Amino acid sequence: MFNTVNATVYGPVVQIGVANGPVTIHPTGPREAVPVVSPVPGTDQAAPEVFVGRTREIEHLLARLDPDGGSGAATVSVVAGMGGVGKTALARRVSATAVTRGWFAGGAVMVDLHGYHPDGGQVRTAAAFGPLLAALGVSRERVPATEPEQAAAYHHLLDALARQGRRVLLVLDNVSSSDQVRDFLPRSAAHRAVVTTRDTLTLPSVRALELDVPEPGEAGVMLERILHGHSPGDPRVGREPAEATRVIEACGRLPLALGIAAAMLADDHALTLAELVDELDRSATREEVLRHGEPSIAPVFDLSWRRLQARDPSAARVLPLLVLNPGPGTSTEAAAALADEPVPVVRPRLRRLRQAHLLYQADGHWRMHDLIRSRVRGRTVPGNAEESDPQAALSRLLHHYGHTATAMAGRLTEQPDGPDGPGGPGEPGEASEAGESADRGIAEDAYAADRAGAWEWFARERPSLLAAVPMAAVSGHHRLTVDLAETLLDVLDTAHDTLAQAAMAQYAVDAAAQLGDAEVHAGTLHRLGSLHTASGRHDRAATAHREALRVCRAAGDRKGEAAASHLLGSSLLDAGRLAKAVTAVRQAAHIYRVIGHREGEARALGTLARIHCRTKRYDTAVGVHRQAIGMYQDAGDTRGEGAELNNLGLTLWLAGRKEEAVVAYRRSADVSRTAGHHCAKAAALRNLAMHTGWLGRTEEALAAQQEALETCRSLGDVAGESAALSALPVILSRAMEPRAAVAAQQRSVEVCRAAGHRRDEGLALSQLGQVLAMAAGNLGGAIDTHRRAVDIWRDLADRDAEATELKVLAGRLAEAERNSAARRTGEEAVAALNDTGRHAEAVAIEEWLATLPAADHGTERAVPPDAPTRMPRVYTTPKGCTGGCLPFSATVGAVVAHFLDGPWWLVTILTVLAAFGWGTCLTSLVFLSAGVFMVCAAWGTWWSAAGLALLLFGAGSLVTGTTEAEPDGRESDRDRQRRQRRP
Predict the structure, then answer these.
(1) Which of 60, 570, 802, 864 has the fewest CB atoms lying closer than 10 Å?
(2) What phi, psi does 639 have (nearest 5°)?
(3) Integer Cα distance of 528 and 759 in angstroms
(4) What is the model's pLDDT at position 860?
(5) What backbone torsions phi and psi does residue 485 show, to the nearest 5 degrees?
(6) How far is 304 from 262, CA to CA, in rounded Å?
(7) Which pLDDT score, from 0 to 100, does residue 558 have?
(8) Rounded to an integer, what distance in angstroms lies between the CA atom of residue 481 and that of residue 474?
């Protein structure tokens, strides 16, 4: 069979034989809907709508929502019924009443899950957690990046609000299955959820309400009220009660159909109810009436459609075009682009469709019921074939989104548009025509919007924009797909939405491959690789960069080849494949050197130095870092110079060259501060604070930490703020302030928790566990804290972080002589390490487990390999009268006894008590001094033996108390080797 298509085709061509008319081929498979979450207003703020009766159902649902309803309350209430019966209207009315009564101080939100969309596209459960967090008051930059983190943060937020007594109401609309809604349901009995569905859902602890069509009397009142809303004082329903009953029954008492029938009556004042019934009877067929076992709106809609075509064909022509919009709703500007008409011309037509009850407005968008959508799809209006061409209309819509998004993105970055106006290039051969048409629909304030207005526009149009990219890809608009995806990637990066970014990046890669532009293709692949790196998928990142390398080599692009090799090496380094990483990075450095690109070579050398650090070749790494810094200085690249100086400081610290590291951090902060590179400055200051604090330079450390903290807060960098706060416990620990150190780290945990950043919270908890154990000596608190961190890693499905945390927890348990628990935890750590490919570490843990005593409270504590070790014991006591009086009195007593020529043994005892009380780093020297004094003053008596004992004790404490730990609480390699050499 030959395929012959004698018409314009929208979408992929399939084998259908002969087609002699306009053809619209929709993509196969369901299209995933973008979640839209909106707050539920009170009854005094809700948009007016006709609502009649349902008194019993309202009271029933309110009793379930009432927080003081006792046994009648229910956490989850399900409203089930056929499509168009008024489930959403009932849920909206009940939730608005509950909000007005002040029952839900934590917030009330409504999300449409599109469970019955005619295209089959439903909202994926995991995709709605981010919008839900935003609707519940979490700021955009504080919404976690990944879906597992968002889900965990969502339930954590609900739990926190429940503890605060701030109840939350969730209205989950259009749910088609239990699986679609189960993960949204609150775990706390304080919160409430209302679910609407057309099916029977199997959910735990649920009370269902079956909603039927209204009683005939209520349906009659509804018809009359809707009619009076359009035509006040219209007497037809009251004047013809028998015919009104026939109309009501012809509509199946379905509120959706009654609204359309009332609109037809209002539109034609000469139309009698009897004539309307006759027309409805002629439109109905038995197949339609019995479809899905529910009254169909087909007769009512078909009649309304024919009358609309006859009376207002221009409005009728707009309705089928709105179905082409891939988002859940269509703005007036987007509708203008679809219709190829100016906004002032299209707006009255949309209002006409709303008056006909074929559209409704919500959140500034025009929407239609999915039953209406299914009837509208595929319909056309005779007339201008070009206006009704779906391919041309879709092209105009997509270019409208592309042009406006580019203009708004320019406002976000505060960069003026070029002389030719906003927007990217169109498709080859169609740019001019598409651009002119798209300009008709561009938002009226697109060019005048400020940064806040641009954010509002992106937030408002986000669902449509995200859906427009795959639609552009499927319809063959490859250049537009790349341009729109790249614009959205920049916006989504600012909004920390990495999941949506990954989807956009993949569409951009696929579209760029079709363009044949190697530079664009490689750029999209690098963007995709960077996103995979940010989410920890290093192997996928390496695959993307390797493909970019292949593309650049095939095109003979040497600079692109060098960049791809460098990025590939970085991904391989992150994946732990060091040998291959060295090869790729050296190749990049060589190519950059050949083509004379000094900055590129410096970047590659910086990565090579990182690899040397991973293999503990610190001196080699220091030399490579300095070579890269020199290249940055020659090129005048202060950003690169500042970052590389910071990296040099880290390497010097690991090499044990502490003072040189501090100098490097200071230089990095100074260079970045002068050049205005705030993120790089904050990073250098955090390291400077951490390490000067470790060296006991408290004043300098606190100053650096405070500046880093203020910088991160000014940038809205929550992760940086948490890291800056985490430097404070190290400073305070070394300054002998264990309680203040714990409090500071707890503040870091609270910042991450309040922001909903579960990953950063897990890191902060891990650090808190180390501070509790090593600075405060609180092993029990440390163990509990590490277990909380393990729970977070499990919630986030981060097996690698879980393995590391389990390893630390096992060490803490062994240190507390809880060997049975340590063994169980160690075995869990071994399994996690093997799952993540860290087999050598797993073997080391297994060997350590073999050394653990069989029972608890063993005589010897075993420490797992690479587990954090305890800080040298400092003899500290709480500040205040109970803790500070003893050392202070002992010190004063020793000084007074010395100057009054008191007994030498009294001076010695008071001095030792003062040393123990203050817990200073001079304790060992005091013991040595006291020992020497006793030996010299009482030689030949038994007191000389006590002096010798003090000498030995002081010498021993001096040896064992000088172990240096890394800033994260781990021993340095040199000190670990020294400890392992001791018996």
Answers:
(1) 60
(2) -60, -50
(3) 22
(4) 41
(5) -65, -40
(6) 10
(7) 93
(8) 9
Q: Is 982 helix (H, G, I), strand (E, B) or coil?
A: coil
Tell me how long the chain is. Answer: 983
Residue among 567, 563, 543 at smallest CA distance from 553: 563
Instruction: Name the one residue in this structure whose structure tokens are 């290093």.
Output: 538
360 φ, ψ (degrees, to nearest 5): -140, 160
Residues paired with residue 172 on neighbouring β-strands, in sequence order: 111, 195
Q: According to the model, what pLDDT value does residue 896 have?
A: 60
CB under 8 Å to 723, separation ≥6 — which residues?
686, 712
- The 8-class DSSP code of residue 88 comes to H
Contact 31, 123 (CB under 8 A): no
Q: Which residues does 457 contact at the CB level (< 8 Å), separation at least 6? A: 404, 408, 443, 446, 449
Which residue, 512, 514, 546, is CA-closest to 532?
Answer: 546
- Beta carbons of 631 and 669 less than 8 angstroms apart: no
> How many degrees, rounded to 5, is the angle at CA 778 between CA 777 and CA 781?
155
Asked if residues 430 and 395 have their Cβ atoms less than 8 Å apart, the reply is yes
Strands 192-197 and 168-175: parallel
- In 3-state terms the chain splits into helix, strand, coil percentages (rounded to 5) of 65, 5, 30
Radius of gyration of the chain (CA): 36
| DSSP letter for each residue of 151-199 | HHHHHHHHHHHHHTT--EEEEEEEE--HHHHGGGS-SSTTSEEEEEESS
Tokens of 243: 């015919």
Structure tokens at 98: 């509950």
The pLDDT of residue 48:
67
Q: Alpha carbon 126 to chain centroid distance?
A: 11
Yes or no: say if 146 and 498 are a contact pair by the CB < 8 Å rule.
yes
DSSP character string of 742-783: HHHHHHHHHHHHHHT-HHHHHHHHHHHHHHHHHTS--HHHHH
Asked if residues 305 and 379 have their Cβ atoms less than 8 Å apart, the reply is yes
- Rounded Cα distance between 110 and 91, Å, is 10
**Along the chain (983 residues), what's the average pLDDT of each consecutive run of 10 residues?**
41 44 43 73 72 80 79 73 79 87 87 72 75 78 72 83 86 84 82 84 74 80 80 80 81 77 78 78 48 50 73 83 84 89 88 78 78 69 61 88 86 48 32 39 52 80 86 88 87 62 85 89 89 78 92 92 92 87 93 91 92 90 92 89 92 91 92 87 88 84 84 76 71 67 77 74 83 76 88 76 88 86 89 78 86 60 46 31 48 58 62 54 54 60 60 52 37 35 26
C-alpha span between 328 and 485 (Å, rounded) = 19
CA separation for the pair 728, 703 (Å, rounded): 11
Instruction: Enter the DSSP assignment of 452.
Output: H
What's the CA angle centered on 462, arms 527 and 531, to 5 degrees? 20
Task: Give residue 899's pLDDT.
Answer: 57
Q: How far apart are CA 544 and CA 963, in angstroms?
A: 45
DSSP 8-state symbol, 141: G
Residue 25 three-state SS: coil
pLDDT value at residue 859: 41
Whether 475 contacts 452, CB under 8 Å: no
- Find out whether 747 and 763 touch, Cβ atoms under 8 Å: no
Q: CA end-to-end span of the chain, whole Å?
A: 87
pLDDT number for residue 953: 56
Residue 155 token pair: 């339930």
